[in-house]
């Protein structure tokens, strides 16, 4: 544990890192159980965003089953879950102008959305935070948990938040404020996909020893206000095919939310092979397809964001508990790839973790142990059953490609109901998939028209991203020479294309190429931490409150 005398310490029973659906569900369930047991419990949720919801981004077609378990009267209590799905459409885009609607009979069963809702996950998290505070939870937005704290037995004892007021040169400024130590008997990591503390815990305790590598996609999303005559609240549209080729996994979505808004986006799997591919560029091209552009004519883009998503599924889940803590939500990887949904799994995993902690603490446990009961509760839950049925979806696409992988998914889900007598694995990490630039086709992306398609910088502006500029970069290079010495000649430095925010660029200074990092643009998507071919880029937290400030994402 860091014994810095400058840090103030606060003691809690449970420390939860992350104010997304998993962390807030865990906090609410803990307080519900304490109230039922007539016992006081101190719980804190620490969130790096400037407010709850500021860093939350998701599609989002929401499955309410887990929310109903947490708050059975959620509708009467005013949860912002109101736009019911009325119908689904799935289109195979054959080219930039042509498409074919997939008959509902041939759509995999888990992709049907009867009983689901189109929501803003950020607004749902704000509602959950209100419920948590009403139950007695301490909610601390604007504080970035930057390190795990350990006791002398190597058990997690809590977290420290990042210092404020440190300059780029590493020296303290006049407004320096030391971070806080938040200490708890159990620490729950709910940071979302590719959490930096989750990575640390997995490495320190070898939690991935028996798991496949986690696999990822990057999801890019925009919010548009469209012509009311073109709007159909409750319509869910999914696409596969163009502009991605048959070897690149991914697909598009367009959801008609309330208030004449549509949520639209593209997910590109990060095991793509062509280093010249730009997920942002593909997204801007996709919007010009007639099946998508028909909804956007005369509309206005009002929001933009991007975030990595887990897609490894059951085989990629790590061990969930470690000495003094546990992983929940997308920090562990509970997203169901075939459903394209993770919020319900995040809420359920948070509840399961809370119930395991409560059972231990109320039974006299002093804390800091390994709660294997959480892992067992997961295995006995409907969440495990759901992920088990979907277990071959991701590996199937990786093995067979988009077309034949989709056909396999139909057979697996609609005929065998996810019960085929085998489990495929995918043991190749996403960052090892790139072909050399000299062996890959160069992709020429059209200039944005400023009407339907846009550039990165105007998009980042819509995300309201802001960082204190005079601070050490939170994007760190293990070897500063590697981008120019290796990535540039081998892969034409793919960071300048896979980043959706223009953080990385190659510039020429004194006649020599230089690798520039514009950390102030970072929308915290974590793609660089995942896709760099040599795993040379390490994403760490900036000062608390920095990053995007999403509204309604």
Kindly summarize this structure in a few lines:
With 553 residues, the protein is α+β, with helices and mostly antiparallel strands.
Task: Explain what this protein looks like in three dimensions.
By secondary structure, the chain is of the alpha+beta class. It has a domain at 8-70 and 122-211 and 318-389: FAD/NAD(P)-binding domain (3-Layer(bba) Sandwich), CATH 3.50.50.60. The chain contains 14 helices and 24 strands. The protein has helices at 21-36, 65-70, 121-135, 196-204, 279-286, 290-296, 343-362, 372-379, 382-389, 393-415, 456-462, 482-491, 495-498, 527-531, and strands at residues 8-17, 43-47, 61-62, 83-84, 87-93, 99-101, 117-118, 138-141, 145-150, 156-161, 164-166, 172-177, 180-189, 216-225, 235-241, 250-256, 261-269, 300-310, 321-322, 325-327, 475-477, 504-509, 512-517, 537-539. The strands form 6 sheets. Strands 1, 2, 8, 9, 10, 13, 19 and 20 form an 8-stranded mixed β-sheet that branches. Strands 6-5-15-16-17-14-18 form a 7-stranded mixed β-sheet. The model is unreliable at 1-5 (pLDDT under 50).
Task: Indicate the radius of gyration in whole angstroms.
Answer: 23 Å
Mean pLDDT: 97
SS content category? alpha+beta
Known CATH architecture of the domain at 8-70 and 122-211 and 318-389: 3-Layer(bba) Sandwich
Residue share in β-strands:
15-25%
CATH fold-level assignment of the domain at 8-70 and 122-211 and 318-389:
FAD/NAD(P)-binding domain
| Count of DSSP-assigned helices | 14
* Main sheet record: 8 strands, mixed
State the name of the first-level CATH class of the domain at 8-70 and 122-211 and 318-389: Alpha Beta
Stretches where pLDDT is under 50 for at least 5 consecutive residues are: 1-5
- Total beta strand runs: 24
Terminal residue distance:
37 Å
Give the helix level as a range of percent: 25-40%
**What is the CATH superfamily of the domain at 8-70 and 122-211 and 318-389?**
FAD/NAD(P)-binding domain
Structural shape: globular
């Amino acid at each position: 544990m860091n014994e810095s005398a400058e840090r103030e310490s606060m003691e809690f029973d449970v420390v939860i890192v992350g104010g997304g659906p998993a962390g807030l569900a865990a906090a609410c369930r803990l307080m519900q159980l304490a109230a039922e047991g007539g016992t006081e419990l101190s719980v804190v949720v620490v969130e790096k965003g400037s407010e709850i919801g500021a860093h939350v981004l998701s599609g989002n077609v929401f499955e309410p089953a887990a929310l109903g378990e947490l708050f059975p009267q959620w509708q009467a209590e005013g949860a912002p879950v109101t736009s019911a799905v009325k119908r689904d459409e799935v289109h195979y885009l054959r080219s930039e102008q042509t498409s074919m609607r997939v008959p509902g009979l041939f759509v995999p069963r888990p992709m049907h959305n009867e009983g689901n809702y189109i929501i803003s996950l950020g607004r749902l998290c704000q509602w959950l935070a209100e419920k948590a505070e009403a139950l007695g939870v301490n909610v601390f937005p604007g504080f970035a948990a930057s390190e795990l704290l350990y006791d002398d037995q190597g058990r997690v004892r809590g977290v420290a938040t990042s210092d404020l007021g440190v300059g780029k040169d590493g020296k303290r400024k006049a407004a320096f404020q030391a971070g806080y130590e938040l200490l708890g008997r159990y620490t729950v990591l709910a940071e979302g996909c590719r959490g930096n503390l989750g990575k640390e815990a997995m490495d320190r305790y070898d939690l991935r020893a028996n798991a496949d590598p986690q696999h990822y996609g990057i999801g890019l999303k925009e919010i548009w206000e469209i012509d009311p005559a073109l709007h159909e609240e409750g319509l869910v549209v999914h696409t596969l095919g163009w502009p991605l080729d048959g070897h690149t996994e991914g697909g598009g979505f367009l959801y008609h939310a309330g208030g004449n808004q549509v949520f639209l986006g593209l997910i590109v799997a990060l095991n793509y092979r062509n280093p010249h591919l730009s997920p942002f560029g593909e997204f801007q091209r996709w919007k010009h397809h007639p099946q998508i552009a028909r909804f956007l004519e005369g509309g206005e883009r009002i929001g933009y964001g991007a975030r990595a998503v887990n897609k490894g599924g059951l085989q990629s889940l790590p061990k969930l508990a470690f000495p003094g803590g546990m992983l929940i939500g997308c920090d562990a990887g509970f997203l169901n790839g075939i459903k394209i949904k993770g919020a319900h799994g995040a809420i359920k995993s948070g509840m399961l973790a809370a119930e395991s902690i409560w059972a231990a603490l109320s039974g006299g446990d002093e804390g800091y142990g390994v709660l294997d009961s959480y892992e067992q509760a997961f295995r006995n839950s409907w969440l495990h059953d759901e992920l088990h049925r979907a277990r071959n979806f991701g590996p199937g696409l990786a093995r067979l490609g988009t077309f034949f992988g989709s056909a396999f998914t139909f057979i697996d889900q609609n005929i065998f109901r996810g019960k085929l007598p085998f489990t495929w694995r995918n043991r190749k990490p996403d960052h090892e998939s790139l072909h050399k630039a000299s062996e890959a086709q160069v992709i020429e992306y059209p200039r944005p028209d400023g009407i339907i398609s846009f550039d990165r910088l105007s998009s980042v502006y819509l995300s309201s991203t802001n960082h204190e500029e005079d601070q050490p970069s939170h994007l760190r290079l293990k070897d500063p020479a590697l981008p120019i010495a290796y990535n540039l000649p081998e892969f034409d430095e793919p960071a300048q294309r896979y980043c959706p925010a223009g953080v990385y660029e190659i510039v020429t200074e004194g006649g020599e190429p230089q690798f520039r990092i514009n950390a102030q643009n970072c929308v915290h998507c974590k793609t660089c931490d995942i896709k760099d071919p040599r795993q040379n880029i390490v994403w760490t937290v900036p000062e608390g409150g920095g990053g995007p400030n999403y509204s309604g994402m």
